[in-house]
Amino acid sequence: MYLRAMKNxxxxxxxFLYSSFLISQNSIxxxxxxxxxxxxxxxxxxxxxxxxxxxxxxxxxxxxSIEPIAKIEKSFFYELNNSNFDVVKDSTGSxxxxxxxxxxxxxxxxxxxxxxxxxxxxxxxxxxxxLFYNNALYSLFGNGYFKENNLxxxxxxxAREWSKVNPPLDSDIPKARTNAIVKKIDDQLYIxxxxxxxxxxxxxYVRDLYLFNLxxxx
Length: 218
Known about the structure:
By secondary structure, the protein is mostly beta strands.
C-alpha cells in the first residue's frame, strides 16, 4: 500500500514538473494554471490535447505549443469538463463533447468551445455508451432518474436534436443496463454486459452479448 501511494505521488510530481517545463519553455504569454484546472485530456488526429480553463497544450512527437482559448460561456464554465462530458470522435478524429447524462453537445475548433445542440440538459442516460456513426452520435442504454433503461438515442448533426431509435417488432430487446462495453465493426455494434440495480438495490452484472445492426436498427 505504501509503495503504491509513493508511486502515485511520484506520478503527480512528474506531471506537475512536466507542465511547469512546458510553461517555462514556451514564449506564448499566458496566465499560470494549476492541474485542477484541466478540463479534458484528449487527442486530435495529430496531437495530444490538454484543455485547461484558458489554454490548450498541444503535444506532437517532441514538439509542443501552448495557445490561449476563447472564453467559455459563463453557464458552462464549471460544468464543461471530463467529469460531466464524454469525448466522442468521428472517423476523421474530430471531437464531440457530449453530456454524460445526454443533452448538450459541444465541439472544440479554432481553440474555442461551441455548443451545437438545441436540446438542453436531458439528465436521462448517465452511464450510457456513446459513439459516432454516419454523421450522427449514438447513445445506448444508461440511467435516468434512478432507473436503468435500454434506450438507443440518435443525435443528428443537421437536426441538432436527440431522437429515439425504434427497433423493428421482430428485434430482440436487451435488458436495461448501464456501463455496457460497445465495439463497432463496420455497420455492426457488439454490446457486451453492463449492470443494473435490482429491487434490493444490489448491483447485478449482465452476462450477455448483443449484436445491433446500425443499418436496420435491429
